[in-house]
Amino acid sequence: MSEKQENSLWKAYRFPLILISSIALGCILGAHMGKDALIFKPLGDIFLNAMFMVVVPLVFTTICSAVASMSSMKRLGKVMGSMVLIFAVTGAIAAVLMVGTVVLFPPAEGTTIALTQPENLEKLNTADQVVQAITVGDFHELLSRRHMLPLILFTILFGISLQMLGERSRPIAQGISILADATLKMVQIIMYYAPVGLAAYFATLVGDFGPNLLGAYFRSMVVYHVVTLAYFFVAFTVYSWLATGGRGTGIFWKNIVTPALTALGTGSSTATLPVNLAAAARMGIPQDIREVVLPIGATAHMEGSCLSGILKIAFLFGIFHMPFAGLGTFASAILVAVLSGVVLSGIPGGGLVGEMLIVSLYGFPPEAFPIVATLGFLVDPAATMVNATGDTCSALMVSRMVEGKGWFQRFYKPQDDPTA
Predict the structure, then answer these.
(1) Could you give the CA distance from residue 302 to residue 298 in angstroms, rounded to a whole number?
(2) What is the pLDDT of residues 158-191, one digit of tens each?
(3) Alpha-carbon distance 28 to 318, whole Å?
């Protein structure tokens, strides 16, 4: 290997390797220090809050700019239609895979957990939750990452309105595009702090919750992480191969490492959005497609959550000694998993709402909620890694559906990709 190639590889993988080393260091510190590792929590929170700080302006400026600059409303409709189809199909595939796994390896087999009665657990009102998912009561509530779906809906409508105004809106659209570029530059600055932030975050997680990995939840953890890693490597390889005709699979894996590790460390698809957008640009995904699909996907496309949804349902079935069998049971579980992982993921309260939905729809007693909520927390990092990576893969597939068979050869520019 020539010195030039070695320098190119080091340049491509330097930052991911630094992040991996930081995460490993954090895990070691957390395991060694236990609860004392909580002293690092503020350092991790600074990084997480900094990422969340830029999410709202990033979502607004990138989506609005992309929609307003679409060449036509017909193209926007094609992008949105392809995106919804891909989100639903990939979520269902993930759910079906986990159904087959939990049938073969029941996650709660031989498990006995002492039930804890939660306080003030309210029955889930699905209609109210759907309303909260897509609307807010006042404009200022849009300026919060806790209301991402209403913000996205408002931004899309605003972008469509700008496009309908034609030439009159061009100065505003250009200004929003400049704001989007400035926000992405801000993200680059924040990422210089990522190694410290991720090390502190993992030290806190391992030190505070490490003991929960043992005992009653251990089997579920093993089942979930084996399936999730298999899905991560196999499914995304297949999807990227189909999307690029086999030409972009290597490019995808070279560029997805940093977003995947960021998602694993932060536990948030929205916090990963900035680095995901940068990776998608290096892959050659058209700007208007990546700036629509990725922000929406960060809120409403959760393949990892579909996987964990089935695990949670099967786990509760096992805890309460109910048979998880039959086509009706499997179909309802897949529907609930896709609903909680794709639709309800944007509701304020995040995964807890989906977990409440599972408890409510299946008629489990209220004390089932803390059981499934704890399991949800334990599998969340790996789930988020799959969620965020799935967003980028979906953008690749949307590009294939919108731009046609040879899109990758036309749009990918090696000079813009340091891994080339």
Answers:
(1) 8
(2) 888 888 888 888 888 889 888 888 887 887 788 8
(3) 33
